[in-house]
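Suppose you are handed only two things: the residues of a chain and a line of SMILES describing magnesium ion. What would the bound structure be? This form records exactly that question and the answer produced for it, so the two can be stored side by side and reused later without any lookup.

QUESTION INPUTS
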Amino acid sequence: MRLVVEGLHTYYGASHVLQGASLVVEPGEAVALLGRNGAGKTTLMRSIVGLTPARSGSVLVDGRDLRRAPPYRSARLGLAFVPSGRRVFSSLSVAENLEVARRSCPRRRGPWTLKRVYEVFPKLAEVRTRRAGHLSGGEQQMLKIGRALVTNPEMVLLDEPTEGLAPAVVEELGQWLGLLTRENLGILLAEQSAAFALAHTARGYLLEKGRMRFEGTMEEIWDSAELRSALGVAEHPNRTR
Ligand SMILES: Nc1ncnc2c1ncn2[C@@H]1O[C@H](COP(=O)(O)OP(=O)(O)OP(=O)(O)O)[C@@H](O)[C@H]1O
Ligand SMILES: [Mg+2]
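ANSWER OUTPUT
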């Protein structure tokens, strides 16, 4: 799947949040969407999947414009959105959460079954009967990714997956992202934590006040003191990959 976003303008009431945002994610590519608090990262992802439709511009998924399509349409085409925070059905069990997600895209075929999700995330298998509301932050993140995977997506939009996670879980999350990339899934990773994005993507966009301020390789971002300062990071962290 190739995602091409062109000139999106999105409003919340009178507030003009996205002011012509554009980006491209090639099939199987992992791309970072960077930007400080309030830059519009979440709004851009919500506009891509139709949760907060853009007023103008285009969202092309393999050439089809989904800007005005309802969220289920992008999901059924293989574009999964993993929201930030504790967005799971808290009164349902882990297994029920996965089953509901799987049924939302009944026609999508692929390698991801509940069984395979449990194989890849054995910790999720251990808590499969537990209510999702009782999971730890890391387990909930795992469940949200599992819910995306059982729809057999071709591309995953991940909104701030590291938020609120302990460092050891962030490291695990990095391994899961590596797995998705090896399965040739495209990834768009929204992050305030630029160091995490640097380790797991090769290319990125810097969103500032609803516009793309910069697009380039991670090296270019880290080599520029001006861009680092726009991201609120002082130093070049060591590359971990
Ligand atoms: N539901 C909403 N109603 C009104 N304004 C909103 C709403 N959601 C977000 N905004 C505003 O839109 C702007 C962009 O917010 P958004 O959540 O997209 O940014 P973000 O880059 O995801 O930030 P963060 O890093 O904090 O998640 C901000 O000014 C925010 O206050
Ligand atoms: Mg956000």
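WHAT STANDS OUT: The chain has one domain: 3-231. The mean pLDDT is 92.
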